[in-house]
Amino acid sequence: MELEQFNGILFDLDGTLVDTMPLHLASWELAASEFQFDYDADWLYALGGVPSRKIVTIINQHQGLALDPMAVVKLKNHHYQRWLPEARVFPAMLELLERYADRPMAIGTGSSRVNAQRVLQSTGLNKYFSVVISADDVVRHKPEPDTYLLAAERLGVAPGRCLVFEDTPIGQQAAMAAGMKCVMVVQGRPDLG
């Protein structure tokens, strides 16, 4: 796939640009222990792109619980933010950012604005992005297209002229629903086939 054919390049953040998923999963594991719900790393990873408060609602539905989403998310985020300085940018993705730094680029993440901004600042990636769309900016989250449609709108680029980089099927569904092409990122490397 030739990136030159696209006017805008959109990126998921966690697990796509930055190796934060192990930190998220470790934080979920501690929250599971403290709130007594079943922890399944693979299942939680597959929900990448879904805001944490919605994940707690899904946990409640699947496990027949009545956890307070705000309390669970507060604790999960406390652990996550403690470990955030350990987060590293995937080298292959940094190389891609540097190569296309002259293009309009945006972040479309299921993370809260606070968490997204902390990740971008702590890794130095904030200099690449004039537009950051977080879970706080849309009502309908991934796999709905709203995150990526808003990112394209703020960049001033037609959705069909945007390319998205994602690491989860939910994110890929969001990109495709927005009418955008999507490249999957596997273990920090884009599958440009």
TrEMBL record:
What InterPro entries does the entry give?
Answer: B-phosphoglucomutase_hydrolase, HAD-like_sf, HAD-like_SPP, HAD-SF_hydro_IA, HAD_2, HAD_sf, PGP-like_dom2
Single annotated GO MF: sugar-phosphatase activity
Organism superkingdom = Bacteria
Query: Pfam families, per this entry?
Result: HAD_2
Q: Show the NCBIfam families listed in the entry.
A: HAD-SF-IA-v3 (TIGR01509), PGMB-YQAB-SF (TIGR02009)
Q: Which family does it belong to?
A: Belongs to the HAD-like hydrolase superfamily. CbbY/CbbZ/Gph/YieH family.
Q: State the protein's name.
A: Haloacid dehalogenase
